[in-house]
Amino acid sequence: MRDALAIFLGEIRQTRSEVVALSESNNRILFSDVTSPDNLPRLAKSTRDGYAVRVASDGQNFENLSFRIVGEVRIGTISNLVVEYNEAAKIATGSYVPSGANAIVMREYSLLEGSLLKITKPVRIGENIISPGEDLRKGQLLLKSGTRLRPQHIALLSLLGARQAKVFSKPRIAIFSTGDELKDVRPQRTRKSSNDGRASTFDSNRPFLSAVIPELGGVPVNLGIARDNFEEIRSKMSQGLKYDALLLSAGSSVGERDYVSRAAESIKGLRMLVHGVAMRPSSPTGLAVCRGKPVIFLPGFPTSAIISFYVFGRPAILRVSGSSSTDMPKIPARIEEDFEGKVGLTHFLRVRIVRDRELYRVKIIRPIEAQYSSWLKEANGIAIVGADGRTSLKCGDEVSVYLIGDVE
User: Where do runs of H (alpha helix) occur along 252-292?
Assistant: First the structure.
């Protein structure tokens, strides 16, 4: 499974760049490294309310001296005051240090006697001063290409005066489902049903993909449902390849009516990398590329489609979007029951994670077969069993878990 994913991700091409307003850059992926355009602070600043003084030696004691107050430095102004020995200037936190001063005495250690100041403790050179470039140096690397911009990054860029950010374009992800039995949750009024009296099933795979893709920074493009017809499936596949990635569900298993495989084989430039993965569920997953664009053939069962998406679709979309990280967030947890898996397969168990003091514990949600969807109402994690070669677990063993929901 890991080999399949590595091969797949290595073939994927990223989107191009665009420049957006900083106010619109949250959750976008940086296209280029960002370095500091200037020192921060640009000039020395006070880190405390108090008095700026000039110290002749480190740890100087002013017990018997008085200082003449020569003025006040306000925040945001560059003062023309020059502080000499035995002089002091009142200063606020964040104000620029006046010329001549090399230490700030906190207000708590200052006594005013008329227009004179007395200091009640020894003072060190540089005390309560942040020097130019001490916070950020000009030219210092701040954020690497591939970083997903979060609110704290936007605050940092704002501090440096940035108004725009160069980011990867949002990938447009085409999605469609196949199958005569499928029914759209929101059917097109202008299109007649082609189920011909057969039992129908609401399509849940496209609603899932439409909901999860924006969380990854992508834009879903819903192409609807293709019936079990070679030309219809090929047409939608060709249409989907106009976008940055294509995800389609059902028709991924080998069978007598496998129109999807035939359609894929007929499209010039589309290369199938993997058709079948040693995992359960979702073993019929297919992975392909077309001119650097990822194409994922998801299984039809909702459980299998969702697991396949988290294992392959999520990292593929992140790679397309330029993200430097494609890993799912995982936590270690203790399994609450024995589990016997099949040797040679990686199992993805839907679980409920609970916090037990300093530990996380997981309960397997049963039944575990792919045809059951009841786990959707309570699962907040997917436990991975077998990736490290251990397919048999005992109650209390540690297991890695993908987080797909909140942990209480």
Answer: 259-265
